[in-house]
Amino acid sequence: MRYLAGKHVLVGITGGIAAYKIPDLIRKLGKAGAKTRIVMTPAAKQFVTPMTLQTLSGHPVYCHPSRPSADNAMDHIELARWADCLLVAPATAHSLARLAHGLADDLISTLYLATSSPTFIAPAMNTRMWTHTATQTNVGVLKSRGIFFIEPESGQQACGDEGPGRMAEPETILDNLNHHFGPAEGPAILVTAGPTHEDIDPVRFIGNRSSGKMGFALAEYAHRLRLPVTLVHGPTTFPPPEGIPSFAVRSAEEMLGVITRQLPQHDIFISAAAVADYQPASPENKKSSKHHNIMTLALKPAPDILAETAKISGQCLRIGFAAETHDLEKHALEKLQRKQLDMIIANPVGLEDSGMESDYNQACVYWSTKKKHFPRTSKQALAKQLIDLILELYREKNTVKDS
Ligand SMILES: Cc1cc2nc3c(=O)[nH]c(=O)nc-3n(C[C@H](O)[C@H](O)[C@H](O)COP(=O)(O)O)c2cc1C
């Protein structure tokens, strides 16, 4: 992809350890044909030298709001106008707070206020700093202003902690910018996420441990590729990603209702929700009291969303998930066939810190006669690999159809 060719990318570097990856990013941006100018906070200079960056970008590095002495340098308003986009990478917790509050006490935050071009932010910090309410509130404020976040990845951090907070790799940052400047066309994707709750009475329900994280990560990555995405989610413990049209539902019945209406407008259906297999046969209108030592609850099958969509999906590519504690391959292949799916993503559950509720997951994917294994990684990283594979299959099927 060469959508960055000729684009003006203004890169703001703040004082995080991940700044050491920025020379590589500048080199990659140059190779992609982008023109870069670099702005640093004083703290950033402790992690990477302006000399390295000047050499790689071929231009003086800006560190202060006042005009630098170099002849070919621009002042901050000129720089803000020059930029086709502002990229802040790595973005420290401190700089996120500055941007969220509209401070202008350094050149990056001044440029953010002065530019009308899109801003991309690649945060990088210790996982506790990233998940702290103060940081997440600032992130929420910035997202609500339409800032594009290149989400940090999960994994081992420089400080030894493990969890989300590590800056996205330069390659991922480049992908995000490329897609932003690329054409917006692509298949429309309908994603389901989270559990369903099947009511027993007004206060009790049958549910499951699905968190919605996998479905949300899939929707978020597809959205970042600028594909039209719609999300249908059950009662998750945290809100769906911002900027994606979402429908909140409660039961399998409600989920099926929304999907039936939405499916015809979509090209790909990814069923990542953990939909209940059974629901109470006769839910009570009033809370049932504790009268007996043993209570028997009659259950009936809940609507089978995958089976129902097979009847109405037309040309839509249908992707299912199978969460299994044992005989993964056998159950997945059987479900692939029984539900007439185009692909099934089987993930083992019951393992430590992987699958349901966890931030991590692993999967074995089956389609036609093929199979691919994705080892344990963050749900965000897995989502990227899965969406890329699904899009490959989509293109394959559509090329065959068109030829
Ligand atoms: C060795 C070291 C590594 C640091 N790494 C980070 C980091 O990855 N993310 C972060 O938010 N702050 C980090 N900090 C703290 C920031 O450097 C500090 O908050 C600084 O004031 C940020 O300034 P700036 O946002 O203006 O660049 C680090 C500090 C030190 C000493």
Relevant terms:
403 residues, alpha/beta, Rossmann fold, 2 domains, 8-stranded mixed β-sheet, 5-stranded parallel β-sheet, 13 helices, 19 strands, 34% helix, elongated, binds flavin mononucleotide
- Low-pLDDT sequence parts: none
CATH superfamily of the largest domain: CoaB-like
Ligand types: flavin mononucleotide
What is the total number of structural domains?
A: 2
Q: Helix tally?
A: 13
Structural class given helices, strands, pairing? alpha/beta
The mean pLDDT is 91
- Give me the Rg, rounded: 24 Å
Strand order of the largest sheet: 12-11-8-13-16-17-18-19
CATH class descriptor of the largest domain: Alpha Beta
How would the global form be characterised?
elongated
> What is the end-to-end distance?
24 Å
Strand content: 15-25%
Count of extended strands = 19
From the coordinates shown, what is the CATH architecture of the largest domain?
3-Layer(aba) Sandwich
Task: Report on the biggest sheet.
Answer: 8 strands, mixed
